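User: Hey, quick favor. My workstation is busy. Could you predict this chain's structure for me?
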Amino acid sequence: MSGSGPRKCLVVGVCVLIAGLVVPAGGVAAQPAVAGSDGAGNNIHAGAPFATDQALNLTTNLTVAGTPLPDGGSVTTADNPRLAMNVTSNATIEVISVRINDNTRRSYVPNATAFNESTRLDLDAGTHDLTTVVRTANGTTTYTGTITEDPNAPLVTFEAPMSAGFVGPDNEYEPLGNNYTVNQATVTLEGTIQDQSAVEYMEITRYYNYRPGGRYRPDAEADAKREIEIPDPGDSFSRELRLGPGRPSVGSGANRLQIEVADEYGNVRQYHTQITVNDTAAPEINVLDRRPVATRSAVEVSAEVTDSVGISSIGVRDGPVTGAGQDVLFTQRQPLQRPFSKTVTTTVPILDGTKAITLIATDQANHRTTRELAVNYSELVTPAIQFDNSLTGTAGAQRVQAVGRVYDGQISRVRVESLTPDGETIDINSVYSGGVTENVSFRELLDAEAYPAAVRVRVIDVTGTEHTKTIELSQSEPVDEVVVEGAGTETETAGGEGDQSDSTTLRNIESSPAVSPGTADQSGPLGTLTGLVSEYALPIVGLLLVVILLLVVQQRRG
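Assistant: No problem, here it is.
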């Protein structure tokens, strides 16, 4: 029994070797199974990569127009495709029948074990069922497939801005018209494409002929040609196209379109039409901003001009709309390069107070729009003065505080002063005297001799004109006071450097706690002693602890 183990291993190894020689590498599972039967012993295969019947030892290879057609597969071809057949069998091939839509088209009696043949199928356009029946001495096998013949070029249905396609109860195809009219220079060509096979490309070509100034240019059409190619468009398309304006007065302005579409079999179809741009609307002018120029008596004006066909020029006139002449701000002579929206900025001198400025815009069709602006330079530079009534008022027996702002103007200098009941100046603070700015805040403490008192703000604008505003103060309950910083500090301003002043300046009014006038200063010996104790409390406590510790150590040693 001791040798039984090795002997068993040897027997198993021999069996495995024999099995490997007998059974192919793919195993039994590699043999294709019969998919079905027609009930008379004829095998029908579907979905195999090649038409192979293992039971009958029969192989059938079919190609249509050079493309392999597997059993149960489909193929799309051009006009009049050729069918090639290659059939091999271990048994004699007795009959081969080729049927289109169940009608016999070709029949062969090879009486051989191999058969090769190529023939035209003479199909009509559309989809057809192909059936191939092969009978050998061992039995009969049927193979099927589908052939779609596509001899026609793709058909396009246009949706916008042109119309062409299938209409009416009979679904008849309405061809593309010769001419279409639109009212804007940018259009989107949209539509669908129908074809039995894949569409290879679509090409849109626009030709625009124009004559600048009414003169003929032989190269104008070539300059205005544009091609848009759409590879593999699928079954729909959408492309934006720029068109030139119609100019019937000079005999030009037509946009000619050629649209070409082709499928994968070289079937090509072309469409031709013309689009005319009829411009009926004048440009629109929207004034964006008006601001004074601080360095001189002038106004800077910004405006946006829009037009659906294209802007040819924008100008400005130093005067009313009824005047003559203009300064050109923008011009574009090329019709296909004129913008639909353009923003311009210009500076116009204003020397006589109120004055009119006129903006002029012209579009492709010579439609003109004028916009007159009445500009008062004094109103643009005059600031507004505002007191904060909740914080402006009495701040002590002989003190007042003034809080507020100067805004919406061209400000060169700001001063705040306190006045006697007779209008004489008691105290004055310089708030701002930097460069020109549009917004200044003031927060000032001023001396006041008696009540009623007054506070006045003096503002000088960029033209040198002074503007003032005064508020009367009576001896009443003090207003909420603010933290006071020492005299001589720099005043906070909005937009420029502050002046050095000998008067006390208030800062951070809104967030600082109120200061009581009676507790602003503590003087005398008691106050001095209290201050020293507060300042040196921590060192004194530390020194006392060290002395106590030394005494305790000394006592323990004694």
